[in-house]
Amino acid sequence: MTDSLGQKLNYRSDAARAHVGAAARPSARMMVKESPVYDGRESEILRIVSVNLILNFMTLGLYRFWAKTRLRRYFLSRIAFLGDRFEYTGTGKELFVGFLIVLAILAPVGVVFQFLSHYAVSQGLETVVVVQTGYALLFYFLIQIAVYRAQRYRLSRTSWRGIRGGQSGSAILYALFAMMWSVITLFTLGLAYPLMRRSLQGYKINNARFGDESFHFEGGAGALCLAWILPWTGLALVVAAFALVGVEQHGTGPVDWEQAMQDPKRLLQSFGYWQLLLGGFLLFWTTLFWYRAAELRYFASRTVFDELRFTSTFKGIQIFLIYIAYLILMLLVVLGAGALFFAASKVFIGANSWFLQSAVSAAVIIPALLLLGALQPLIVQNFLVRVFCNSLIAQGTFSPERLLQNQLDIPRRGEGLADALDIDAF
Question: Is the pTM of this model over 0.85?
């Protein structure tokens, strides 16, 4: 199936499209009702992640910039729309150089905060709180800048029919919006979270372009607010459980299980706290998958490109099953690593050496963690891309030949800030 599809897909190079003038482009529009086609193969992804795993291990993680680039290039090259494949033109060198530049800027900032932290300790608790709060706010501000700049870089390196994407707008303004909405969300006890998501996503979409055409985001957030009710309820139960435990600790004293066993009433009360806490966590994390799916459907239905509108049938159960499969894999790997560590420890049971035990632990745990990280594109990202493409439908009138190359500035370096702050921007 994938071979026949690959033969049918007619890929146009960037050079072939970039030199076509506006006058030579036909203005006729065609009716479109089509989904993107993803024909990635698990065997091909497994080969890529295997090579990435080996090279990351050999280079102590330095190869991760090139590993990320290889995966992006593969996934985009296996997605086609209207018979043409997407292309990713970013390089590992761009990501690496961007990372080094940002790291050189962040390192002195870290040194300054370390100095301020030591100084604050000598000045008292209030000074420590002020310094740590300032550090947290700066870190959060930089994270939001990194998120926006990373999307700008990825769009500028994504092309279709030789036409590349792009993004205008200000990363600093986006970060300020994020901080403002975070404060509002905090003061509304989380109820404003859907409004924050709608505002921030709307800013990114309204500033995104493909060729000389802009994307547009429209509509309110009523559907998102309804979808957020159940996750918010679970979160509220968790907060309520912690609050009740706090009241217990400051009222009749902390929960003492030895005393609780002798007092049935106190025992039931203690179990009630844990049930409330566990129930809140389960309600939040399970319904969060459904909320994310509702969010994706909402964002798709409110996005317009030229005269194309989008709909999605993405389901929460699809995300849930994908992550459950990955969780089961994680448990198997951890249990396997534990069994190997136990077996290796038996070999050296007569040697009570801390260094030897640490070496055996590292020899088992580090490869297990690397394996988990390497398999995520195969287990999670591969199936998410497949389900996303199958569920997304673009409908309306569209003329691809009318698209002109956008004139936005192209970032010369990769998403260094996102890498330096360890933000996964796949």
Answer: no
